[in-house]
Amino acid sequence: MEKMVHTFPPYRGHEARHGQPEHHDPGFWRTWIFSPDHKVIGIQYGLTSLCFMLFGFFLMLLMRWQISKPGVPIPVFGPLLEKVLGQAAANGALSPDLYNSFGAMHGTIMVFLAVVPLAFVAFSNFVLPLQIGAPDMAFPRLNMASYQAFVIGGVIMLTSFFIPGGAAQAGWTSYSPLATMIPTDGQIFWLAGMVFIITSGLLSAVNFIATVIQLRAPGMTWMRLPFFVWAQFVTSFLILLAFPPLEAAAVMQLMDKVAHTSFFLPTGLAVGGQLANVSGGGSPLLWQHLFWFLGHPEVYVLILPAMGIVCEIIANNTRKPIWGYKSLVYSALAIGFLSFLVWAHHMYLTGMGTKVAVFFQTTTMIISIPSVIILTCFFISLWGSSIRFNTPMLFALAFLPMFGIGGLTGLPLGFNISDVHLHDTYYIIAHFHYVVAPGTIFALFAGIYYWFPKMTGRMMNEFWGRVHFWGSLIFMNVIFMPMFAQGMAGMLRRMADGGANYSAAVNSRAGADVIGGLSNNIMALHTWILWGACVLGLVQIPFIINLFWSIKHGKKVDSDNPWDATTLEWQTATPPPHTNFPVTPRVYRGPYEYSVPGHDRDFTPQNEPPK
Amino acid sequence: MKQWFGEKILGLPPLASTNGQGVDDLIIYVHCLMIALFLGWIIYFFYVLRRFRSSRNPKADYVGVKSHASNYLELAVAGVEAVLLIFVAVPLWARQVGYFPSPGESTVIQVVAQQFAWNVRYAGPDGVFGKQDMKFVTLDNVFGMDPADPNSKDDIQLINEIHVPVNKPVIIYLSSKDVVHSLRIIAMRVCQDAIPGLRVPVWFTPNRIGRYQINCAQLCGNGHASMSGGYLTVESQADFDKWLKSKSGATTSFE
Amino acid sequence: MDFPYIVEPRRDTGLYNAKLGIWLFLASEVMLFGALFSAYVLLRVGAEPGMWPHGWLNVYIGTANTIVLITSSITTVMAWVSCKLRQYRRFKFFHALTIVLAMTFVCIKSYEYHDKFTHYEITLANGKFADGHLVERSKDFDLAKKTGRVTIHGHEVDHEVELMDMQRPEARHIQREELTIPATDIKKMERYGPWHHTYLAIYFTLTALHAFHVICGALVIGFLWGPGSRMWHTDPERFTNRIEVSGLFWHFVDLIWIFLFPVLYLL
Ligand code: HEA
Ligand code: HEA
Ligand code: CUA
Ligand SMILES: [Cu+2]
Questions:
Q1: How far is C31 from chain A (nearest CA, A)?
Q2: Cβ neighbours of C173 (radius 10 Å)
Q3: A206–C28 C-beta distance less than 8 A
């Protein structure tokens, strides 16, 4: 095995090092911006989506301020906002319109522009071809087009903040008729942006599936694929089959908006003080069905890649095989299949009959079982292991209980009779943020710390990694745990005033002897959450600095395989050269052969020839 | 015990309807399941993290767990979920949407939501709503009442105010004139989307006299947070009759 | 490391990369059109009784277009076969034919669009409805100012419902004539655009999306016919694969139309 360590920037002119004729230096643009190399595209996707994530978080900080101090000018940023956005941010506070568009854009950006491109596209781009021993993606140029479509979509979304009337305001779910009736063109931008983002997702999905099916190295049978590959493979199918219906829905809503059709507008609508001048005859529920037909598979798109990442890191740092590899694979497949059958659990309260409700409750309960199996496999893998607590492992371990909380709180939502009380409250917000924020985001952090040495040839700083970990763990919980209490007490989501209008305090001020209303204690939690969110933002600073500083100054890795891992991405040069492997690797065994009895090393790479 | 757990541990808000008990019960049962699972797992988790850290257990075991206990655990989770589903959730839902109280012995109300208020309509002294048709819908006639129908003459139309007698089922026919809203009365444990173009009935039986908030639970525009003017008043039958009479301005007694 | 399976198929899957790619892409296309078809079903089922139109489209033109598209599918197959047989000139001929047929399809389709955009339903002040194709508008015609007059070739009915089902027996005998209506008699005047009725909305959306696919496909085929065909001389096998892949896409576009035609024209 060749042991050669290169340093950043790696992705050019490296052929020479492997004894092949030196290509002429393609130059900055062809290397970093218009490169068809899957590793570069992975890094592009990664950095872009991290920026979007930071932006999405920033929107949320402003919103959290507004929630806990409605109408009070935002310090520092308030005047800035007012200058840029004008009336909508009059006084340096968020108007309800602006709050709604920040909320819609936070959801959209986090889901479609941050987590999907990072968890799904960026990680599988960088890691997946390496893990299966492929020279690149099956369609490198399609890959590049996917990134370009993504950037265009993102730019359209960002532009919409600055048009008159501002960005989309109807939530990330964009329910019609609201989305159609709000008199801003933000929704048009949202829909147009979505069409590009969806296209980009589809291109990536086609690419990943084709790559996994066609380009596995010799010997890499299906049951020798690392679980990460399986997870991304299932995710690709979810994207491939669930995104197009949303695209269709987006086209129809766009028609409603610009060609004044009535796909989602029923007869007899009255908006803005007059009867809507539309032909009518459409159905608002049609939009909801199409949206959630995407929406539910989408949430598994957010979690499956995270599970894949966590699995790799746990196997590596427990130094033992993952327990129940096959059940993991079958569970992931089951989740993929079932996730197309549960969408209407988001629509329990639209007035559905018993039969339909029974169907969707049952599928929802059934789909929770494979998640339990996956988590259980990870838990059991810990038994008998020899755990190395490095930063990636800490994040991966924290993923387990955090996802656990999020997943378990999905259960009361899955029964429609208990959903009656919890629907559209902060309980839901807490439920899904536990899965996507301390869940998926932790897995993403874990993945970044874990594969960083492969990308750059240097390690990220352990100490600051730990600061980042503990800070994130604590303050994520400070933010989201109180939301369960708020939701249970009946605080509704998407409230520009944080529910102040429904608080007991306002009720009693009005002199009404009203029973219920949000108590002062519940309202006071807003302040906690606000400060929690601020500190959460602060503890990301070590991470950001660590990330960029380590590219140039991190500790150099002392081998191509600094974590003593078994999977193929660690068995090539660091960073990997242009077609990844000097010669096509041959695979002899499963992905997690750690601590095999009778071997002198505690790991046996997949491509190590048997003795 | 159940009561205490629901109120003090979970923080469920006050309940004032008979059908809401089922909602609370299920929430409590599911949370018991969740807490049991969570505690079991988290204890195991920390135990394992301590016991198998590399400084204490430098050499990992290739095989790990051999027993099949986890299969039983997974089966148990599935079993409990199935029980809750089949014996609690489904029957409750079936009762809620399948067995409407007869209109004769209930208070029947029509509600049409709009940005950002609730239009409420009672049948008035004759107990019969006027004929309705979408084609009559105008800005002032959000219910689409047929102006020619004599039955609609004594109907009572109000805004943001619902009165109902206690201990008698209430049926609300819910619709919306512009966007999707959601009628939510927390203390009654009802929540139902008001969808333009559809008229969906919901029912509940209030069992505690008092005044309750009506929340709008679905994002409906910039006034969503301040769509808070609606109140439900639950009162004795006599008070209710008096109130209805005062509103209808009819000369004949309601009885 | 060489890039595998660009030309030769992988043994265990029997596919080369691009072929698998196009199959996957078509799967997503099925979901796209599937969603629109289910929207169609929902809108139709949800329509008020009697208010779902029948016979608004010309079945003969639609049939003609169907034949055009099916023929083009055959010519693409012929083109591919010619490639397989290494008959370059025959390939050129058949592929040119495909492009011509594709353009014919688009032309016929735009004629149909034009027909709908010159078709008006006029709500008269007396509550009746006039319906027909625009013949001319007087110079001073202005609906808002209520000046001038408009002439259509069509007929007048008492209720809007009567405009819906143009296939019922009585509708066959409708006498169409030129009607001149002064603006003062017009309450509302609307073309048969997508905003006029959800049927037209779904009709325009589906057919426009389909036509978009036709045009994209034609562009690809045109590229492979023209500049792209240079690959023939360097790598005929790979070129043949490209023709096969573009052909698969073309068959899919054809197939969509086979569903669209009965759903929109006949049912
Ligand atoms: C990644 C995202 C993700 C994931 C994985 C899930 C998982 C689940 N979700 Fe969630 N959900 C969302 C994201 C997600 N959800 C979002 C974004 C929304 C709101 C959308 C909106 O309205 O804007 C939502 C809303 C939502 C609703 C709609 C509520 C409403 O609007 O009224 C429902 C209802 O059934 C539901 C149910 C479930 C269920 C049953 C699961 C199950 O799959 C969960 C199964 C998992 C478990 C059962 C956990 C098992 C745990 C362990 C084995 C380990 C425990 C470990 C320790 C304690 C150490 N979710
Ligand atoms: C993947 C999805 C995702 C993620 C990760 C998050 C993350 C967060 N969300 Fe979000 N949220 C949604 C999806 C998501 N959210 C959706 C779909 C909605 C519903 C919208 C709607 O109502 O329509 C919602 C709504 C929502 C609300 C409710 C608003 C309302 O109803 O009015 C709140 C309230 O507190 C909230 C808070 C947060 C917070 C504090 C985080 C934090 O966890 C954020 C943590 C992130 C960071 C701390 C940033 C880390 C930064 C980096 C790593 C950058 C590094 C940068 C470089 C290297 C360049 N979110
Ligand atoms: Cu009405 Cu929200
Ligand atoms: Cu869901």
A1: 6
A2: 6
A3: yes
* CATH top class, domain C40-46+54-116+197-266: mainly alpha
* Alpha carbons within 13 A on the beta-carbon side of A145: 12
C166 CA from centroid of ligand 1 (Å): 50
Q: β-strand B210-213 against A514-515: which pairing, if any? A: parallel
Report pLDDT digits (tens) over C52-107: 888 888 889 999 999 999 999 999 999 999 999 988 899 999 999 999 999 999 99
CATH number (1.10.260.40, 3.50.50.60, 2.60.40.420, 1.20.120.1760) of B103-247 reads 2.60.40.420
Task: Please report, for chain B, the start and end positions of each structural domain, with discontinuous segments joined by +.
Answer: 2-98, 103-247
CA distances (Å), C174 to each of A183, C135, C164, C166, in order?
43, 18, 13, 9
pLDDT of residue A25: 65
Q: What is the model's pLDDT at position A484?
A: 95
Cα within 13 Å of Cα(B163), Cβ side: 19
Q: How far is the CA of A293 from the centre of ligand 4 (A)?
A: 9
Contacts of C25 in chain A (CB under 8 A): 202, 206
Whole-model pTM: value is 0.93
Q: Domains of chain A: which residue ranges? A: 40-264+282-571
**Percentage with pLDDT > 70 across chain A:** 95
Q: Which of A254, A261, A286 to probe the C interface (max C CBs under 10 A)?
A: A261
For the cut 60, the answer to whether the pLDDT of residue A138 exceeds it is yes
- The two three-digit tokens of residue A190, written as one number: 């949202």
**Rg (Cα) of chain B, in Å, rounded?**
25
Domain ranges of chain C: 40-46+54-116+197-266, 123-191
- DSSP-based three-state secondary structure for B232: strand
B/e letters for B139-171, b = 16+ CB within 10 Å, e = fewer, are eeebbbbbeebebbebbbbeeeebbbbbebbbb
Contact flag A175-B231 (C-beta cutoff 8 Å): no
Confidence at residue A270, expressed as pLDDT on a 0 to 100 scale? 80
* A145 alpha carbon – ligand 4 mean position (Å): 30
CATH C-level class of A40-264+282-571: mainly alpha
Containing H/E element for B114? strand B107-114
Quote the tokens at residue A396. Answer: 């991966």
What type of residue sits at position C95?
H
A173 CA closest ligand 1 atom index:
23
